[in-house]
Amino acid sequence: MGGCCPPMDLFRSEPMQLVQLIIPIESAHLTVSYLGDVGLLQFKDLNSEKSPFQRTYATQIKRTGELARKLRFFKEQMSKAGFSPKKSTTQADVNVDDLEVKLGELEAELIEMNANGEKLLRSYNELVEYKLVLQKAGEFFHSAQTSAIEQQREYESRQVGEASLDTPLLLEQELSADQSKQVKLGFLTGVVPREKSMAFERILFRATRGNIFLKQAVLEDPVNDPISGEKVEKNVFVVFYSGERAKTKILKICEAFGANRYSYPEDISKQVQMITEVSGRLSELKTTIDAGLLHRGNLLQTIGDHFEQWNILVRKEKSVYHTLDMLSLDVTKKCLVAEGWSPVFATKQIQDALDRAAFDSNSQVGAIFQVLHTTELPPTYFRTNKFTSSFQEIVDAYGVAKYQEANPTVYTIVTFPFLFAVMFGDWGHGICLLLATLYFLVREKHFSSQKLGDIMEMTFGGRYVILLMSLFSIYTGLIYNEFFSVPFALFGQSAYACRDLSCRGATTDGLIKVRPTYPFGLDPVWHGTRSELPFLNSLKMKMSIILGVTQMNLGILLSFFNAMYFRNSLNVWFQFIPQMIFLNSLFGYLSILIIVKWCTGSQADLYHIMIYMFLSPTDELGENQLFPGQKTLQLVLLLLALVAVPWMLLPKPFLLKKQYQERHQGQSYTLIESTEESLQVESNHDSHGHEEFEFSEVLVHQLIHTIEFVLGAVSNTASYLRLWALSLAHSELSSVFYEKVLVLAWGYNNIIILIVGIIVFIFATVGVLLVMETLSAFLHALRLHWVEFQNKFYEGDGYKFLPFSFTLVGDEDE
């Protein structure tokens, strides 16, 4: 505002302006491309009433979409082949037309190679199966032939010798039967999946009524199925049948079960010849397939070398045409009109980009840049770096700041990790968190370039938040004097010592102060005493109230800065002042009483003082009096708190009504002061003209705000007691794990029990205290900022500045 102080870029969002660009159509593409490199202009859609197909550049978008599809196809093929695209930061030196031709040729070549490769592989797999069928069926026929020869010999030998009693009676009749009357059997050979072999056999038997003979042989190793290309366990089968009808049935069943059939020659000499031929063809096919894969690999390698460049180029082209579609075509159809938001500081960069585009495209006329005046609310833009961006995201998750309102992030950078540390105070645990964060910081470049999982990405994104959280935890841990719940006399000796030998560590009785007060943090002598818990409870509870009241006062103070910045005197007089009076009359006063009690060492009961301040304010305080004139001060504060409520509620609606009547008297429309309500009326003027001032609505709105603040002052202060509760829980859990696991295991004097105890202690500390407790304290600190702090001043109803930028296009996945 003034020139006395250095500018705070993060405290208020960047001043924005609505600009209009009139761009000649011949330089439009290059202009938008250069503006994408600048990345500081958010285009407005001037064709929102048109469907995507009715827009000017629909054909070009379809064309770039097709190029993107081809690149996705290449990426799939590369990932299947085990190639990864080569990382590249250089710009592709081809234009889109050449790239379209090149990608078309490469796609056609790759599709043809894939089709040929699939055919060859199918033939190869079929030949492998055929070879196995020839081998297995050959073994079966060979064993059957051997068996038949043996039977013939046996029969002949029996004809020469005498017939024994074991000789079958019909054997002679069978063997000497008329050759002309014998039935001619046909057979089929092939392979069937092993899981279907039993069902295959059963169906064959039923379909032919048992008039078949089936022989199966198991293939030891799985084979590649010619159709699916997957490894499948299969059996070779030979089925004998009689008659054409049986053959037809068997063929249909084979087809239904996915059994591949292969012809088998009956002649033995032909069998040997077939095996030789198949082996020769297999070796030829193998050589051809290997050569094809090598060629395909070289092609994919070439594509991989340029893939990133092409991908970035196509994405940029697509985003440029999408942006051009948001521009409106002038009546003359010779230029495009663009409107958009840009930060004021970016004016020079945008104008330079326009001039460069006009020069590079040899345009006769340059683009025209002009600033438009509008009552429309601009987008919110904060210039953040990698340190502040994570804190800004914490605030934005609640709501994006309204244009130029005070940004809570400035204070959140300190208050968020501090409130977390109040609940997580242990410098041992803080060091563990710090080491984990330092690992992320050391390997920052490595993690930034990798695709991380959801949880890992979230943790890495908040690495600087966790860094500050760990540093503040070490600080509060030193104040609480806790290192995995163990106290250390780091800053000197304890101020207390035993009066005599009967003094024990289990009680503070018998301790006398012999030295100056312990210089920093909690005196280690308190640890393990009977009065440790009551003392720490009292300390942390009162500290929580003081921290809470301080942060809420900061929130109300920021509402004053907002009101002053937007020149809204109503909010200063009838919101800021009564809110400060009400909060500090009650809880500001309580905080002062706590500090006075700490300084004086008084035994006054603060609960009694606060309760009877409301119930019987005129009664004497007696032993609860902390300072002279306390009773009078309490009466004044109570009266001020009671006056502050109607002060907040009543004047503002009446004054707003008066302002409205003055503004619209005689239909003279003048620029008005920017109050919340007037801004709403003003923003609606564009579409609805001047709306009526609804007094009842404004009164109800103010009533809700007043009740919310009055009740919130009590509930929000109580809400800060979570700082005490979580700090106590963390300390007690840490103490339990240390005493009941580590110390207990140490007491057994057994190395195995000690090792088990240490392992259990490490897992309990990491799992419960460093993961669950960290998350719990993080969420509670988040709630204190979002609800208790930000509701005092932060509207958070703005919208983010989303400029057209190629850096964002390059990062996002398709």
Structural account:
This protein is an alpha+beta fold and 814 residues long. Helices cover 60% and strands 8% of the residues. The protein is built from 24 helices and 13 strands. It has helices at residues 28-38, 58-81, 96-160, 171-175, 197-207, 244-256, 268-324, 347-360, 389-398, 409-423, 427-442, 444-448, 454-461, 463-480, 532-565, 569-600, 606-615, 630-649, 651-663, 676-688, 695-719, 722-747, 751-789, 806-811; strands spanning 16-24, 42-43, 186-193, 212-218, 223-224, 231-232, 234-241, 260-262, 328-329, 335-343, 368-372, 496-498, 511-513. α10 packs across α14 (463-480). The longest helix is centred in the N-terminal third of the chain and has 65 residues, at 96-160. The radius of gyration is 43 Å and the shape is extended.
Provide key terms for this protein.
disordered N terminus, 5-stranded antiparallel beta sheet, 13 strands, 8% strand, alpha+beta, 814 residues, single chain, 4-stranded antiparallel beta sheet
In a nutshell, what does this entry contain?
With 814 residues, this protein is an alpha+beta fold.
Give the low-pLDDT segments. 1-6, 668-689
Sum up the overall morphology in one term: extended
pLDDT averaged residue by residue: 88
* Global Rg: 43 Å
Oligomerization status of the protein chains: single chain
User: What is the rounded distance between the termini?
Assistant: 44 Å
Total count of helical runs of at least 4 residues? 24
Topology, number of strands:
13
Largest sheet: 5 strands, antiparallel
SSE-based structural type: alpha+beta
Task: Please indicate the percent range of residues in DSSP E strands (runs of 2 or more).
Answer: 5-15%
Family: Belongs to the V-ATPase 116 kDa subunit family.
InterPro entries: V-ATPase_116kDa_su, V-type_ATPase_116kDa_su_euka
Transmembrane segments: 418-442, 463-480, 543-565, 632-650, 751-772
Protein name: V-type proton ATPase subunit a
